[in-house]
Amino acid sequence: MREWALGAPGRIVTWPAPDAYVLVEGVLLRMRPDPPDMPPGTEVVVGQDTERRSLVAHRAAPGTGDGRAGDE
User: Which contacts of 31-34 are long-range, i.e. CB under 8 A and separated by 24 or more positions?
Assistant: First the structure.
């Protein structure tokens, strides 16, 4: 499941600090937001924290529409 989500666009639904629940293709995934102060509704791209071996939600590039960088 982890490999399927890497690089996928998503949206923060809610967060039980320090983690967030991110909706990715209809599936809720729990991950750490980076930066940690992103509110619900923020478009993100799923990445991986190799040190912690966990998923990370990075803020999507502005103006990409689907959350993927470089899709302009």
Answer: 31/55, 31/56, 31/57, 32/56, 32/57, 33/57, 34/58, 34/59
| Amino acid occupying residue 39 | P
Q: What does the chain come to in residues?
A: 72
Question: What is the pTM (predicted TM-score) of this model?
Answer: 0.77
Candidates 55, 54, 27; CA nearest to 11 is 27
- The set of residues, in sequence order, having a beta carbon less than 8 Å from that of 39 and lying 6+ positions away, is 12
2-58 confidence digits (pLDDT tens): 577 889 999 999 878 889 999 999 999 999 999 998 999 999 999 998 898 889 999
